[in-house]
Amino acid sequence: SYVLTQPPSVSVAPGQTARITCGGNNIGSKSVHWYQQKPGQAPVLVVYDDSDRPSGIPERFSGSNSGNTATLTISRVEAGDEADYYCQVWDSSSDHYVFGTGTKVTVL
Amino acid sequence: QVQLVQSGAEVKKPGASVKVSCKASGYTFTSYYMHWVRQAPGQGLEWMGIINPSGGSTSYAQKFQGRVTMTRDTSTSTVYMELSSLRSEDTAVYYCARGGPNVDYNWFDPWGQGTLVTVSS
Known about the structure:
The structure holds two protein chains of two kinds. By secondary structure, chain A is an all-beta fold.
């Protein structure tokens, strides 16, 4: 089955840039989506189709995808961005939807 | 606005079944796929399956084949997820999440508030 690997944690100071990676075999050929989940809450879509933002999501959230790595970038990090982040793809070979292992973002 | 409201928390004994509901509003129910995703305590997200509310067709993750059944009631815009032969490892928060109008839209937005299912003797 298709595996998506994320770093367990990322720490960043307020106002700086956080980059969260999502590794997978030839992930650049797939569409990658990203979710933010705060404690006790349901996940929220923050980026879809590699780099598009749903309405209401700040421009500070951006995404890219190439080769074997997709990246979610959070610019000008705020305390409210502290959360778990998950990447997700659809794997055509198994017709399964796959989530990454998740990354906890801590704002210092 | 699009809203998914799930049924309340459940406590079940091992070997029992649980049925969780997800009522949709704010859009045409039969025009969008619906997914179920679960999250064990302190763990990540796990996709369980998808249902097409229009015709009722389903596709389940291999891990849950034979134990999960997803259905829908178009008269009440509600989808259901039933999981049988429960074991302690099934203790988790279960989410419904709307998919797209077709399978090319393979992201989930929005999500229900989640339903905690606890399996304990």
